[in-house]
Amino acid sequence: MDMEQLIASIVADKQQHARWLNTLSLMENTGARKISASEHQKDVTLIVLKHAAEEHRHAFYLKKQLAKLGEGLCPTYADDYLLAPRESRHYLNALDVQVCKYLKTALGLNGSDLKFAAYLLVTYAIEVRADALYPIYQDVLDAFESKVNVKSIIAEEEGHLEEMIHQLSNFSPQWKVYANKALEMENRLFNEWLKALQVYNVVHQ
Predict the structure, then answer these.
(1) How far apart are CA 24 and CA 83, in angstroms?
(2) Coil, strand, or helix at residue 69?
(3) pLDDT tens digits, residue range 14-71?
(4) Nearest to 166, CA basis, from 157, 175, 156, 178
(5) Helix 85-107 and helix 175-204, axial crossing angle in degrees, nearest 10
(6) Under 8 Å CB-to-CB from 137, ≥6 apart: which residues?
(7) What angle separates helix 3-11 from helix 175-204, to the nearest 10 degrees?
(8) What are the φ and ψ backbone dihedral angles of 190, each rounded to 5 degrees?
């Protein structure tokens, strides 16, 4: 089952669709919290604040979309209200840990320098993924004539990716080498997450 088929099978079931929206909200919120945690105590740029604020907004926006599916759906991020809860919580944290280990070995970074470099690479990898995932989700929503939509998120994520590429190019002339490593790590974790979603979706439908 490819990603579009999986999302379609989720959207076809109201309860599963609600869990999907809530899971995406959780992951956006996790990303926002990680961006904030990576901030330098003093040297905080406007673009970092913008990213954290927009990721929090995405988490809020996705939560608000739940009302279009019904009342009282998925009020919290408790496991019962998520798809593949363990893997969904693990995904971004695992990517952050793997990227940090890589940067320590490849560049010898530590402290605030390590946090900032990890923020750049992890966020870049996630934005690349978001640029692929959200348009597929929107296509499925359109096919089902759903009231839910993620068009505003798609527009903002495209801008985020451009901003991350600009920041990475300022970080290092060899940024593509490091970014490709982050993409490889993310791709493995994403595929594991997809498999977990498939299993969870079959069991709970």
Answers:
(1) 9
(2) coil
(3) 999 999 999 999 999 999 998 888 777 777 778 888 888 989 999 999 999 999 999 9
(4) 175
(5) 170
(6) 7, 150
(7) 40
(8) -65, -40
Task: Give dist(CA 119, CA 48) in Å, integer.
Answer: 9
Spatial neighbors of 63 by CB under 8 A, at least 6 apart, are 21, 22, 25
10 Å Cβ neighbour count for 149?
A: 14
- CB-CB contact of 122 with 38 (8 Å): no
Query: pTM to 2 decimals?
Result: 0.94
CA 157/CA 51 separation, integer angstroms: 10
> What token pair was written down for 144?
């089902």
- The count of structural domains within the chain is 1
pLDDT single digits (tens) 94-124:
999 999 999 999 999 999 889 989 999 999 9
Phi and psi, residue 153, nearest 5°: -65, -40
Domain range spanning residue 55? 3-204
Q: At which residue do the structure tokens 């998520």 appear?
A: 82
The tokens for 92 are: 């971004």
Alpha-carbon span 162 to 172, nearest angstrom? 16
Distance of CA 116 to the CA centre of its chain: 18
CB of 34 closer than 8 Å to CB of 92: yes
**Residues 115, 37: Cα–Cα separation, whole Å:** 8
